[in-house]
Design goal:
The protein has helices at 17-28, 47-54, 68-78, 121-131, 147-159, and strands at 37-41, 58-63, 87-91, 108-112, 137-142, 161-168, 173-179. The chain has a seven-stranded mixed sheet with strand order 3-2-1-4-5-7-6. Strand 4, helix 4 (121-131) and strand 5 form a beta-alpha-beta unit. It contains five helices and seven strands, in the order H-E-H-E-H-E-E-H-E-H-E-E. The protein has one domain (19-179): Vaccinia Virus protein VP39 (Rossmann fold), CATH 3.40.50.150. It binds S-adenosylmethionine (SAM).
């Protein structure tokens, strides 16, 4: 796959490691994404959104305006033409212009390595709350690097039921599932 990392080279860097762990989880975890509506937040290279599209989902792949040109070109380069209409690249800066996204319209919200800037935590949580309905499943792959990362998980737990559904000890990457209410059901 001619995947372009942010330095322009055709390889995956350690930056995409958390996305790789969540992609592997989606591919092997028995989650049926066929015809499900998915949004990816803070997509970066778009790897996760591309894999979700390849797994059959209709995916809105988002990031800040500054990241979109690179993201769009990666999506175009890595999806077969028949699947390209199923992946839409859109600007979504957390907490901003959320009305551009219908509330509660997505089955899954995906994010890889998006919990790292404390100044964005409130806006990220606001965005998740806007996008999430009772049926929406949030999946976040995270590496807990600093105390502030626990702070976000605590904030998340204040609004959603949060469970760790996978831990990759070789890469030290956690996958958390969050849902409104007290869901404990499987995917
Ligand atoms: C560490 S990178 C992770 C990229 C990708 N998900 C991955 O795993 O390779 C964090 C991403 O979050 C995005 N981001 C940071 N702050 C943001 C904000 N306030 N609103 C939307 N996206 C943001 C960045 O542009 C970047 O693409």
């Amino acid at each position: 796959m001619p995947f372009r990392a942010q330095n322009g080279s055709f390889c995956l860097s350690c930056q995409e490691l958390l996305a790789v762990v969540l992609c592997t989880f989606l591919e092997s975890g028995g989650i049926d994404l066929r015809d499900r509506s998915v949004i990816e937040l803070g997509a970066g290279t778009g790897l996760l959104g591309i894999v979700a599209t390849l797994l059959g989902a209709r995916v809105t792949i988002t990031d800040r305006a500054v990241a979109l040109e690179f993201l769009e070109s990666n999506v175009q380069a890595n999806l077969p033409s028949a699947l390209r209409p199923r992946a839409v690249v859109k600007e979504l800066t957390w907490g901003k212009d959320l009305d551009n996204f219908p509330p509660g319209a997505f089955d899954f919200i995906l994010g890889a390595d998006i919990v790292y800037l404390e100044e964005t935590f409130a806006e990220l949580l606001q965005t998740l709350e806007h996008l999430c309905s009772e049926r929406t499943v949030i999946l976040l792959s995270c590496r807990i690097r600093y105390e502030r990362d626990h702070k976000f998980l605590k904030m998340l737990g204040g609004r959603f039921s949060v469970y760790e559904v996978h831990y990759d000890s070789s890469k030290d990457v956690h996958i958390y599932k969050a849902q409104r209410g007290s869901h404990k059901d499987d995917f």
